[in-house]
Design brief:
The chain has helices at about 10-20, 35-45, 55-70, 80-85, 85-95, 125-130, 145-160, 170-175, 240-255, 255-260, 280-290, 330-335, 355-365, and strands at about 1-10, 20-25, 50-55, 75-80, 100-110, 115-120, 135-140, 165-170, 175-180, 260-265, 270-275, 295-300, 300-305, 320-325, 340-345. By secondary structure, it is α/β, with parallel strands linked by helices. The protein has 2 domains: about 1-180, Thiamin diphosphate (ThDP)-binding fold, Pyr/PP domains (Rossmann fold); about 265-365, Rossmann fold. Strands 2, 3, 4, 5, 6, 7, 8 and 13 form an 8-stranded mixed β-sheet that branches. It has a 5-stranded mixed β-sheet with strand order 10-12-11-14-15, with helices on both faces. The chain has a two-stranded antiparallel ribbon with strand order 1-9. It starts with a strand and ends with a helix. About 50% of the residues are buried.
Length: about 375
């Protein structure tokens, strides 16, 4: 174990990717994610990997998809405007079941918005931004340590489920510097290769096909069109399309409880905050300052697929307070899964909620 007293969140993300075995990065610089690309540009060649600065974010995600099909763990990093440009190719990655990691260090929007200020306005975009029905996995770190750890987990989840996985951080966490502990080794879940003689998109009981890696003797056709188990286009059959899309969704959604990742504080509390990303730090400060108040806190580290069973960790809850750096994107999702009143605590403009603001909101319900 190596302890580093001051490491930036974006640097920790890059270090986590390298530790996880990422050997390809394709992307385009954009504030406030650029340090991820800069660090990968320095480190990847020394490890036998490839860094390419593409002409734009569309090409960046396309290069990542192509690299993944050669068997290499691949990643890109961006922020809101670049994330928007990636949506069509992210849909292609879902349809072709291409494992990859996309880091989004969120900033204020819409459009170019506030390039240097924090936000959490892309949480619904990462889930629903491309067209059609599909499901993805999204993680949300609240510290520099989690930038490292959850980047590693993102790669493992991507390979296991053959799906794009998003690390949805925010500018505060991306640019924060704090102590981090680097383990001597990290867990790695290898991509399962396709059994020879099996159709390229035939899935077993876990609904995830083996991976027919380019250059390993497999005959495979990769297309974003509706395809059969051979990978060949089959665009006019309602049954083929329905079966394919339902499987793409079910392979992720059926595992939501298994892959859930959250932290619970004071499960007997009646007033409970639900957070992800940097607002969690304000709630933790509030709990530290008022231990007698028995404030509940559900901190989501994996946001999508949303794990509704986590809400049951607070059986006596009278209210769920949801501070977010947006106008209530995840609060709407929480409302779908509980009869407990859900109160959004939105904040825009780049500033983090203060403990005083959260205490004032909490007092109304005490």
């Amino acid at each position: 174990m190596t302890r580093i007293d001051f490491m930036q969140g974006n640097t920790a993300c890059a270090e986590g990717a390298l530790a996880a075995g990422c050997r390809f990065f394709g992307g385009y610089p954009i504030t406030p994610s650029t340090e991820v690309a800069e660090h990968m540009a320095v480190k990847l060649p020394k490890l036998g990997g490839v860094f390419i600065q593409m002409e734009d974010e569309i090409a960046g995600i396309a290069s990542v998809i192509g690299a993944s099909w050669t068997g290499v763990r691949s990643m890109t990093a961006t922020s809101g405007p670049g994330f928007s440009l990636m949506m069509e190719n992210l849909g292609f990655a879902v349809m072709t079941e291409t494992p990859c990691v996309v880091v989004n260090i969120q900033r204020g929007g819409p459009s170019t918005g506030q390039p240097t200020m924090s936000a959490q306005g892309d949480m619904l975009q990462c889930r629903f931004g491309s067209h059609g029905d599909y499901s993805i996995i999204a993680l949300s770190p609240a510290s520099v340590q989690e930038m490292y750890e959850l980047t590693i987990r993102a790669f493992n989840l991507a390979d296991r489920f053959r799906v794009p996985v998003f690390l949805m951080a925010d500018e505060i966490i991306g640019h924060m510097r704090e102590r981090i502990e680097i383990p001597d080794s990290v867990p790695r879940e290898e991509r399962r290769l396709l059994d020879k003689g099996t159709l390229p998109f035939h899935a077993g009981s876990d609904l995830v096909p083996g991976f027919p890696q380019f250059g390993k003797g497999y005959g495979v056709h990769v297309t974003g069109l509706t395809h059969d188990e051979r990978g060949y286009p089959c665009t006019t059959s309602p049954s083929v399309h329905e079966e394919l899309v339902k499987r793409l969704v079910a392979k992720v959604e059926s595992a939501r409880d298994e892959i859930a990742d959250y932290r619970v504080t004071n499960p007997a509390a009646e007033v409970v905050f639900i957070t992800y990303g940097s607002p969690a730090r304000t709630v933790e400060q509030l709990i530290h300052d008022h231990p007698e108040a028995k404030i509940g806190h559900l901190r989501l580290r994996l946001v999508w697929p949303f794990c509704e069973k986590a809400l049951g960790e607070f059986p006596d809850a009278r209210v769920f307070l949801v501070p977010e750096q947006n106008l209530g994107q995840m609060a709407r999702e929480i409302e779908r899964h509980t009869s407990v009143p859900v109160v959004p605590l939105p904040k825009l403009g780049g500033a983090l909620h203060t403990p005083g603001e959260l205490e004032k909101a909490m007092e109304i319900w005490r």
